[in-house]
Amino acid sequence: MSEVKRYHVTETGLVEGESLGRLSVVLAADFDRVTAERDAALGREAALREELSAAQRGLANCKLALDAQTHNYGVTNLRLIGAEQRLTAADERNDSRDSEIFAQVQSALRRSFSLGQIYWQQADSDSTCQQNKSDQTMEVQEQHILNVLKSLGAELKPSGGGGDEAVHDRAYRNGLMQGYNFALNGSEKEYQDAIARYSGGKDAE
Length: 205
What we know:
Layout: E1 6-10, E2 13-16, E3 24-26, H1 28-123, H2 128-156, H3 163-185, H4 188-197
Antiparallel strand pairs: 1-2, 1-3
Helix pairs in contact: 1-2, 1-3, 1-4, 2-3, 3-4
């Protein structure tokens, strides 16, 4: 804001400057100019205050948005943790189930192998009575296969059902029959290979 010249009144007129005991005045043009400059400065100050207020509101909105995102992140993180825990629990259940299935399949194959040896001994016997028993042993083997499939069915059958289940049953039935046939042929190595193959690749005890 520019300076304003002041005058004091004397008997002869206006004299520039101020004088003690004299009336001081300013020119109307200077007064109007200074007033306009003051009003303009006040307008700029009001505009700056409004900009500051808008910036503060924007900052508050950003903080609210950040708080909301932080909350959402926390909720999502908790959900992920829960999902990971459920997945871990499911994996542990599957591992336990697989171990049980492997043990059952190995036991079933050993039983088939044992029945095959019994059948061979009976069928090769000179005793007619023992030869007749071989047919019963074959029936026991067939029932053994059905019992194993029934025991493992709920855990082994795929959820798709239909033809997939039939294929799956045939695969395990064939595996048990191989154990039986290996006994008939006297192939211990093939039997041990079947133990590993039909129990998920684990070695037989």
